Protein 1
Amino acid sequence: MPELPEVETICRGLNQVTPDREIVGGDVLLNSSIARPISATDFLAKLQGKSIFRWYRRGKYLLAELSQFPAGEGERESARGGDGEMGRWGDFRFQTPIDSQLDSQLSASSFPLPPGSFGPSKAGWLGVHLRMTGQLLWVDRSEPLPKHARVRLFFEGNKELRFVDQRTFGQMWYVPAQTEVANTVTGLKLLGPEPFSEEFTTAYLTRKLHRRRRSIKAALLDQSLLAGLGNIYADEVLFVSGILPATLGADLTAEQIERIHSAIIQVLQKAIESGGTTFSNYLNVQGVNGNYGGVAWVYNRTGQPCRQCSSPIERIRLAARSTHFCPQCQH
């Protein structure tokens, strides 16, 4: 499943190519890819004539704020019923732009908003979760249709945003105008803080792990504890912090929890810089693989020498997931 770095990479890519283009039509090839209660026909009808104002990421969800096309200056300033907002969200700056011309830095990045900030929009929202094998690809409409294409959104200029999903677990939502996003995309209500947010501190992590009689690997996979981390980067985080995956959360020392907190930030930042990880299905919006797999410490490296001590990387089953670790470097 694409995790935070992969979804963040996709979000940044979408913000470079999709905003301010009219959605002129589409085609739903698999009805179950559209989340209920809206029908596939109504989903396309609601999107037609709109444009994407901006994409955001929340955990592993992608959320696009919509606007009517063409959108005037006044509409952009009041997309959520008020002036542009400025604030802090962890190490990222976020801004609700009031100018249709985004500068290159703003265009290239996504800026997740704090939980609860995805409020009503005058034109609604588009939500996407890629689940296990979903891909969002920005292509020419003339590009041959792959076997597992599920949804096609047609944009002006003969461009297309294509949702491809082999396992068919991914979903798309249309959130009506003047509706809180979490009331439609209900999984958002279950998410914990973002790793780069001010809320995610060592003290927060200590409180959440205190007295938990489950492995730290299982805890890191819990989206209600921390949004966006998954199997790949949980293994990487535990290697960087030097902790065995089966260690119980309640048995961790304050110093170990501090190491885990720092490792989460470090590993995710490195993975985002590398464009995510490709081991099977993940591609960015241009159809390019992520590069983090080539520098991974332990994930998917069973039997290979540890990059630090040369001991063979081991693999076990833990929290119903494949778990990779170095028996010498992790204690």
Protein 2
Amino acid sequence: MGAQIRRKLVVIAVMTAIATLTGPFGTFGEMPLVSRLGYWGTIIIGIAVVVNLSLVVFLSPRWLGALHSVARIALAVAVATVPGAAIIVLVEAQFFQAPFTLDRIEERAIYVALISFMVAYFEMHVRPRVVAHADQSKYTTMKMLARLAHATDGSVPSPQDDLDTVETAAEGHLNPTPAPAPTTTRATKPSRDVRPVFLRNLDARMGEELLSISTQDHYLDVVTRAGQERILKRMSDALVELDGYRGLHIHRSHWVALDAIEAIVKDGRKCHVRLVDGRMLPVSRPNVAVVTQALEAERAQPTSG
């Protein structure tokens, strides 16, 4: 089970527990504890399913791409509001024998919209930024300590050095200080000694052999030789965490592993790389020379055998 799904289940469980214990909207006095658990559990799970399905549609790749993520969240919640309110009225009909009418749906729609938007806004917009900032700060601190520990001249590295490294990676060059390839075998994955922090974001079944990373709004679509996974993270943060993995930031929206590039394909002024899985990803014009040189250097390395 992925970390995102576990997170959603935890949120649902917490909200259900709070509603069961506090008994909002008069349910505390009207229903015993077990009945409240069934009542609120059914409502919260039902609304969560509807809202999350709507979020998947409105936050999916190339869908309403010009809109800000907050606007997408608002649209997703608006679409899910009426079905969510209908779920409440339907559950009320089962527990209280209340009539299932449009008036009752309209009355509850405002509560569904407000609560759903607050939860979705925090989970899909606020929390990813907080987590990404915390991860980056932690990684930068660890990197500074590691550099200090390995210093031989007693000098203390400046924090600006790390900022310069991040900026260089974001400009489309080779990831900073890539892992050196072994002398007798081609590097197809990073050494265990330099396992990038980024790999901790992936499910274990995804393995450690990256092919590409592409941005989709606040998400990253990560493709490995074992499959594909979508995670909440910014590309700039991913580039920092990829320190130690041989790869290229070929385009503002795409990073590829060097050993995943099968060929460079040029069509007039356009340039793409064809990956080992057959996909074609664009290369920005300023990076064409960098990609070409890096690929030539990669292929010039000795292979085993």
Protein 3
Amino acid sequence: MIQDVYFRITFVIILIAIILYVMLGLFSGDSLPKNSPDNNPLIHSLNSLRTDAEIYASKHNDSYGSFRLDNCTIRPNTDEGSFFNDRTSYGPDNILKILNIVGTSPINRTRCFANGNSWATAAYVSGMNSWWCVDSMGVSKNVGDATPIFTPTKLCDPDKVEATSTAIEVSDKVKYEWCMQNGGKDATPNYNSPKVCILNSRVYQNDCFENAKYFIVSKRLTESVGSDILIKYKTSVNQNISCKYDKEDQDFEIKNNDGAQYVFALENNFLIIDEGTGPEPRGLTIFDLTKRQMVYNDSYSKPVTIKNNKISYWSNTSEEATNENCSNLELNNSRGLGSAIDTYVILDLKTMSKTDTGQHRCSERQ
């Protein structure tokens, strides 16, 4: 009897010891420390910003926009200091979240940079006593305790940027092909425009495209948003032209002056250009390449259809939005947004006559 009791007590003690051993293993060395990058909410927010930035770029002509204040300061309900130069992008919400997590003295604990082609954001992680940085090159890393200083060629990982900068310049001409070869998804519109591919939430768009008469080369600016556009006139349908921005005497060049212009489409003899740094409505400019001059200008919102020398799009009107013609008026007001009435139009490129189809919609405005 005594031996049986002793055996049971011993069994219980061993069982308790095993349970304690397992619990200690789970909550000690095998668990993530509190200041681990994998267990830090601030670093999670920084990493989520990269995905948001790529989504933003895919909706804004492959541009990250610009950032006016290098300390990431954002003032609610304004566009001042917005990471992407407009508060409708995904980025500002994430940066606000980052600042809330950082806590006190955010001006001294966050750094931002964006120039349209590249971006970088860093925040000081107090638990690690160092800065964590993410950028458009795909870097996410601890960059030490010194305050980061960003430039177009010096993001989170200067060695990586400088070492690959030449390769990036060359691959820009065929980045759609590279993207598709590496498992990307074709996102090219169903009209004649630069080929677009999306891979891992990043947009890859070729700099050149053509039709039977013209070869278009786009050069994205590095010091500001927008691009310069070069039109080369083909002497034959099958003429092979190199995708290089080298202006020759017979070429027609459209410089990006005060706006932020991007190639949109090429329809017969007409080059269609998108312009703007913010959300819709955006600028729509059309050049007649036979005349080498601008022949049309308007504002537009998507969706856009381009076919048979005609462009269909939503155009802004001067009609006031009311509860009668805008069912979302009160909802937009409650969200701090404006409302506007759009009309669906068809532009005939041959005659430059715009026809109102009579279809209307109410759209939110910033």
